[in-house]
Write the structure tokens for this entry.
Amino acid sequence: MDHFITLYLKLFFMMTPFFVLTVFLIMSKNLIKAEKRRIIFKLGIAVTISSLIFLVFGQYIFSLFGITLDAFKVGSGTVLFLSSLEMIKGNSEVPDANAKRGGDFAIVPLSIPITVGPGMIGILMVIGAELKTVPDFLMIGGSLIAAVASLMAVLLFSNKIQRILGQEGLEILPKITGLFVSAIGAQIVFSGINGFMAS
């Protein structure tokens, strides 16, 4: 159970939920409630499907390009760490609210690359390559679905969260998320280095 909760929290923070919330509020400000809900559910489906693809087929991509798991851990961890620094500094780029209209922005850019970005893809491929048994896959799949459901809940209550936290609160939360993500990135890098040194 503890492993499930750890995986769930890791995946949830990897989705950078509060940055996604900020982008969603900006890009959906002119939409009615029904349109917002449609976008949220469309995002949930897109994030789940794309994440499962990277989770399942990551090991085959490693094999195809001759990449070792330890090397990918170092690379993906570094990308993740650098991305988190951008979040902490507040330099993450928010798309123009007028760039996409209606439900178009549910897939691009909200699902990919904002929610399922390079860091999320990297960690999914690393986790997928380490899967050994069906129960392992079911646990990862369950934690992924729980993380996606939590992200959808955050977006469904976006207006209430905005009223409670205010603009300053919404600017601070992505930075806090960035701190957690930077720690995850550093841990992945150290794991890759340890694996390389042990081999």
About this structure: Residues 2-198 form one domain. The helical segments are 2-14, 17-27, 33-65, 69-89, 107-115, 118-129, 134-156, 158-198. The chain has one domain: 2-198.
